[in-house]
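Quick one - inputs below.
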Amino acid sequence: MISITLNRTIRGACWLAACIPILFTSSALAQDKPYFVTYSHDLEEPGNLEIETKTALARPGGGNRYGATAMEMEYGTRAWWTTELYLDGQATAQDSTVFTGFRIENRVRPLMRDHAVNPVFYVEYENTSGADKTILEVVGHDGQSDLAGPNGELSREHQHEAELKLILSSNVKDWNISENFISEKDLGHDPWEFGYAVGATRPLRSAASGRTCAFCAERFIAGAEAYGGLGSTFALTMRDTSHYLAPLIGWQLPKGVRLSFSPGFGLTGTSLARVYRVGLAFEFDQVGGWFHNPQGHSGSQGGVE
Amino acid sequence: MMRRSLAVLCIVLSATFAVAAASSSRWLHVPAKDHAHSNPLAGNNEAIAAGALVYREHCLQCHKANAMGDGHKRPALRSERISTASDGDVEWFLRQGDLGHGMPSWSSLPEAQRWQIVAYLRSIQ
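Output:
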């Protein structure tokens, strides 16, 4: 009976998280890749706010099924600088539903032009509990055993972490190919931990059709990503690290909603066997302009004059 | 050790922000091979219609439905600059953007859609 109730709780939490962006729907179009872990060099358009929920559903060995959601609010501060706030939570069957913390991140493109390989610097501060199960990155020797404990016990562990990523990304013949090198440091006593994420995506059709449609091939982006841990400064080895391979599909719905889905498959014994991810994103146009007097602008933007 | 790492991190970040803020790029220096590109979809009515939809989805929020911008930060696309530029210039500028001045890079759009936008912009000059 308790199990049924908590299963409903998980489903309810997932649906609530998925529906929050729709509550604020206006009309805009997000155009990000359907990556869940990998970052490309696409930044948020300046002045736009994207709200996205990324939900991970999994069952660690020796633990209960869970659904963990990260709600991401991404703002285009400049065309070369995007800042984000994540709010994380999770619900575990036969356990509880908990808020697990927040993350603040910034992504900066140091080069103002598009190159064959485009670097982006990523800096993040995490203030989360050990009960965070969103798996937005895998570093060090992260494994499924970290996700299997009861929420009460995991929540007692607090993580204040800094995370640095070097994002390298290329757009070649309508393909996006991205590589991320991740390093994470607990601001207390733990060693630097390392990880990676690589991915490739492509729209199913390059040219747009001249009509508004929901199921046109150009509205779908498919691809795959792989990610995993690379050990730490204490044990710089691949032994006991987790690695995943995850096909991706993204669907750009009308009215600016973007759905993405990814079944991920663990490749090592320490990985989760499977992790299913669902994302729902919505982008708000020119939120920055809501707070400005349109006559009060100065400087220039766009550069085509 | 920890303080030194944080200091180095702050310096690197500050330098990055300074370089990013100071840099600027305009489309005055379009490479010759890009300048010479002609639009494979030029004059194609289907491409113009599709370009109008892509424009509505990605460009309208800044450059407005009439492509006249807002008269301040967001410039008009019905302009002498656009009408005298080659198709290759416009496609190059879409691909590069002008990050220092607020124009995103649209290299993430498939190439065919960038040419569709160019076809549409040509049709409204």
